[in-house]
């Protein structure tokens, strides 16, 4: 990815310097030029050689590569052939593996050519198809490329390095390393850049080798050529980003020296000094430098509005640049900023509205989605109008992005829901693929729960949609939803026609869903019961088993319910709304529906996914014999936590992701995301590992396991992480140790927290190089004492044994010497004992729980912004946010203090005690100090638990 | 091919293109041998085992040679087949000190001779019994017998003892080859 980005950049900077580099984009021009040349010289060229190409014909023609005469004497023809091949590939034509092999070997024969254009096309082709080709075949070009790396032709040197970087494995890299190192300081800028860019892409597979090039890269940093500087810096950053100190040093070195390509990536630690530097770079004469500086500023962690302003101004100018790359880059950065500081870019609105009609659809989509984020309430109608024309011109994937943006907009301006939901509904009725329709449906459904006012109209839109919906999955989903929500609307009878139509017209799956939906109406709305029962009876003769079964069950259950009219009397006298057929709240409905009806009405108390995991864990704990046989009930299932993809981030990242690949941006910034993902390799479920250990069987079942906490830096000799497993009366600290020293072996590793209640520990017998192992410490917890946060100091004790680096076996007579390795402290906080578990309906559970075990508290916190405060409280408590309250409604105005925010949280505390929290957060100002006031109400069945939870706030 | 090109070839205005593929077991001296044939020997950086293949092109005897130097390591041998198509000649290099692997060389030669692109063509095959300077080297005649070359009847072949380091014997082989090629032009 980065190498492509680099390619794009070097194109911008490199064209004047000689040979264009190796990217599809760069070649498009080439093709155009070639096409013209063919016309004038050979005269055997049809109108457009790339129109309606036949794969078979092209493959046939490619046999010409085997003919030395053609290759030497008619390179243009070969170029054209490769272009055709690439055209086919980019059009998505698929080649069988024997076709790929054939063509690939054909193309390798072009190494004999001395024609520059043809050679370039050949390199390009190999680079593009390398991944699709059998790796055993691809290596055949290694020697030829190595030879080219030593050629006197700059073009050969530059391109062969790039191709080699794509195909080489780390074993082979050693053999060519010195040539790459040489090339980094090549006097030709294109060659040097190619080597550096290759370094960047090789870094992913062989970081150690690339790190050895430090000296050469440092030297390239002082190259007179800006492009080389840039790539050198990008590579240096890549190599050092784990190491904060080194990056700081690098930045200081750069800001002092007069580097002409100041494109550093920054880090909070040195943000201030660097900001000034970046700010001055905004006035640099090279627009790419300006862009990168602006982009860096926009992505500074915790950047403030004032600091953003100069960068935004620059980007605003770029929006009207004639260069699409600049427009795209600027637009993309602005769209990122819109996620965090929408107000900062309002001033660009006018330019962005112009971009909606940009010929480049990626730019237009970004403009639209950004406008949707920054638009004011007043501009919503106008925006929607502009979008409707635009929507018909773009592909589904872009439409989905727009749909997500509209959802955000609607959450921000709930008053505008009529226009916005109406707009979404229009597109529901138009052409579109499943994903697009699903995105709209999901948005509408989500908005229904976020903005209750939209419920009735949205239900109608959805009913309207399933009248003519070709997607079974969506139809059934909507039918289920209508069944759940429809009965409590003002006029439930209106939905019956829509649903019954489905019973008549649709396939079996939809019919079955419709029958269930009807049954729900009948169960909840007594006045409709007789007529629905009549409708259901017709399905008793349905040709499909499932439909018949559902109808039968429903009719049976309905018959057992009291008839309309006398229901209230039977159910007991405390109902005070005598003849009202509609139940506003399902709670009140309970009295009326019989025991049997709840079979039909109540869903599972947890999601299917959670249920599946819970049952899986249940089975595991039973297998290992850790748990005494318990009946399989919802209440006895192990607690499973929600995996939290926060709704807010989902929306924003979805908006930027599909576009990321389209343009690639200009520089190294994207690489920042990588290390976090890479440093947390997917490990096997630690809980499952735990159940395999016989010594721990007596502790019973794990209540919950925390996310792993690193106890060492990620690049040390031994990488240690700790997972805390909470049991009812014990805590197991699970230290996973990763040995990164090649010729040492750890034996008897164990780590010891200095806590008196250690009841046992399980050391790790041996740990070889590059292996990860676990050692455990078991702590017992006195259950009658309140839980308080405690901190343990830990040390890793082990014996180091020298071993043979090849075999990994210990040397014969190696005794080993004991060693200690200090670790960061392990903190066991109260929130570790809390499982993030969703309750279905927060309000209802809150009422049910009652105020008996409630604890009320008020705190003054240090947060200066509402979103930080919310994140902080979530972190303190370790609970699951409900009702979408983790997301803060943007206020639309930047001035003044935001209105208070209410959080609803749920969780299960150790000992399987459900806990609910309502918290109100308000940003306050007194004497110029901004702070945050938190009012919190904790409910659970046990006041002690409530107290402990409230005490989590620090 | 355009009309002009055709004429040019017929009138001999353009040099004849000869594509040659050089095969043989690893370490037999293919790369060394080709380096020796090359007119400008300046660019002789040390010979390392070839990975995959390398191409050399140069003019000699009024012929434009394009030589594909294939790697002899076992993992690449099966890829030789991709390069037989439309070659004008095949050179097979033997290390004649390696008596033990002579049978492996024979197997590879058999493979070559039965390859569809080779079996029905009359592509000339030149075999170099290389490293003749070393003690214990088999003679060209011994090699011929070990490889059972006499059975090749449908195409011209020749075996020549050579020393790739000094170039001894190579020219004789190439002259034979040039004659065969000119005869068929
Ligand atoms: N004494 C002697 N040594 C030779 C002769 N020909 C090649 N060598 C040596 O044999 C070794 C291998 O030569 P290469 O040319 O790399 O062999 P190759 O056939 O290309 O090997 P691969 O590329 O691995 O298939 C080198 O050390 C050469 O110096 C020869 O005629 N006489
Ligand atoms: Mg070789």
Key traits:
heterodimer, A: 954 residues, 42 helices, B: 185 residues, Rossmann fold, 6-stranded mixed β-sheet, 23% strand, globular, binds guanosine-5'-triphosphate, binds magnesium ion
Structure description:
The complex is a heterodimer of chains A (954) and B (185). Chain A contains 42 helices and 18 strands. With 954 residues, chain A is of the alpha+beta class. Among the domains of chain A are: 1-48, no CATH class; 269-355; 376-470; 486-567 and 590-603, no CATH class; 644-828, Sandwich (Immunoglobulin-like); 832-950, TATA-Binding Protein (2-Layer Sandwich), CATH 3.30.310. In chain A, helix 11 runs antiparallel to helix 12 and helix 14 (214-221) packs antiparallel against helix 15 (226-240). Chain A starts with a helix and ends with a helix. Chain B has 185 residues and is an alpha/beta fold. Chain B has one domain (3-184): Rossmann fold, CATH 3.40.50.300. In chain B, 32% of the residues lie in helices and 23% in strands. The model of chain B is unreliable at 1-13 (pLDDT under 50). The A-B interface holds A 42, 44, 66-70, 72-74, 101, 105, 108-109, 111-112, 114, 136-137, 139-144, 146-147, 150, 172, 175 and B 1-2, 5, 9, 14, 17-19, 45, 48, 50-55, 57, 64, 66, 68, 71, 75-76, 79, 82-83, 85-86, 88. Magnesium ion is lined by residues 30-31, 49-50, 69, 71 of chain B. The site of magnesium ion (MG) has 6 residues of chain B, from helix 2. Chain A: Residues 687-829 form the Coatomer gamma subunit appendage Ig-like subdomain domain.
